[in-house]
Amino acid sequence: MLKVMELFAGVGGFRLGLQATNGFEVVWGNQWEPSKKAQDAFNCYSRQFKDKGVHSNEDIAKVDEKSFNGMGIELIVGGFPCQDYSVARSLSGEKGLQGKKGVLFWEIARLVTEIRPKYILLENVDRLLKSPSKQRGRDFSIMLASLRDLNYSVEWRVINAAEYGQAQRRRRIFIFAVSNDTNYMKQISNVDDSRILHEDGFFAKPFPVLDQSSDKHKPHSFLLPQDILEISDSFSKKYHNSGIMRDGVVYTEEVIPKVEEAKTLGEILQCNVDEKYYLNENAIEKFKYLKGAKKIERTAASGHKYIFSEGGMSFPEPLDKPGRTMLTSEGTVNRSSHVIEDPETRRLRILTPLECERLNGFPDNWTEGMTERMRYFCMGNALVVGLIERMGNRILQIEQNELESLKETPLQLSFFNH
């Protein structure tokens, strides 16, 4: 069993996916919502995983990294928010560089520095590759350089869950970092970058791609500056949907997934849903407007007039396709909420909280016990469990290889024992 630390745990999507493999034990999980009195996500997490490891409901910045010494944690996982990763010289100059306060990636880096796990698996929104808009790729470059300095190599992939059999068209970036001291990294040290992304790497096995890459976006490689401050101040690069970083050398390529047949929205629907989920005429008219194509003249703060336009959306949602990306506003009268025609009643309604759990691959009624609004919110924030299960199995393959390589290492016999 690989011991795991789960950060920014939400309602436990990472943990559910890893547990499905029967190869991981989450020994410590942290979930804390700074702006809320009611800690709904943490309460759900601690209830569902009762008596299994330590459940922490505290500000991660106040957690003592030295308290994990001797726990044997070999994998750190977490879905952290996209924030401003820029750095600056500390005022005293003695502590070197400092990131902005409250940026959670620096807390991950702090824990990794102390714990030195073999593996790190992180999740984020795919815009991380392009942020900030005025210096594209800076934030991701800072992350890569930070992990480089901690002696890790990194592979990443943007994955649309529906392209690998899941019920939701949810695109997220997954980042896998592995210690350079592992046998895995030594084995692929001479393997070509493109071959790693297409065949031998972390993501290629559970999420196969076509042999050819995108014609529109040519692969390219570059060297990250040694000084993270230089990256923060002036570095900018274009990142594609997959790539690898080894010893500061980055190779990035736009890979094309081998698309699997997805679950459809129709397949995850409940029967006999409560009347409260059905829409009245007033709500139907609002949804029609919100989801319709529109061109509206608006005036900017400067007084400049401009035309705001947006395309139309399917209304109601097609039931023979996977659902769209679910947001935290799901279930409200909002352009992004799913509206379906109920197959039984032929009336229009929103999705139920249980159906939202199914969209992410959670067990039915996983979030029961909190308000409905929070159930929708938590699912809008959650990840797709089935993807994590595949990644968990891939980590176990790599770990098995590590253990076998240790067995093959001949024992050094001493001739000086008495």
Question: How do the helices and strands line up, and which of them pair or pack?
Answer:
Blueprint: E1 2-7, H1 13-19, E2 24-30, H2 40-48, E3 54-56, E4 75-79, E5 87-89, E6 97-99, H3 104-115, E7 119-125, H4 138-149, E8 152-160, E9 171-179, H5 183-187, H6 193-200, E10 209-213, E11 220-223, H7 228-234, E12 242-246, E13 249-253, E14 255-257, H8 281-291, E15 294-299, E16 305-310, E17 339-341, E18 348-350, H9 353-359, H10 372-381, H11 385-408
Parallel strand pairs: 1-2, 1-4, 2-3, 4-7
Antiparallel strand pairs: 5-6, 7-9, 8-9, 8-12, 10-14, 11-13, 12-13, 15-16, 17-18
Helix pairs in contact: 1-11, 4-7
Q: In words, what does this structure look like?
A:
It is a single chain. The strands form five sheets. A ten-stranded mixed beta sheet has the order 3-2-1-4-7-9-8-12-13-11, with helices on both faces. The two termini are 37 Å apart. It is 27% helix and 22% strand. The protein has two domains: 2-260 and 384-402, Vaccinia Virus protein VP39 (Rossmann fold, 3-Layer(aba) Sandwich), CATH 3.40.50.150; 265-381, Alpha-Beta Complex (DNA Methylase, Chain A, domain 2). Mean pLDDT is 93; it is low at 413-418. α1 (13-19) packs across α11 and α4 packs antiparallel against α7 (228-234). By secondary structure, the protein is an alpha+beta fold. 38% of the residues are buried.
Quick summary:
27% of the residues lie in helices and 22% in strands. The chain has helices at residues 13-19, 40-48, 104-115, 138-149, 183-187, 193-200, 228-234, 281-291, 353-359, 372-381, 385-408; strands at 2-7, 24-30, 54-56, 75-79, 87-89, 97-99, 119-125, 152-160, 171-179, 209-213, 220-223, 242-246, 249-253, 255-257, 294-299, 305-310, 339-341, 348-350. Strand 12 and strand 13 form a beta hairpin.
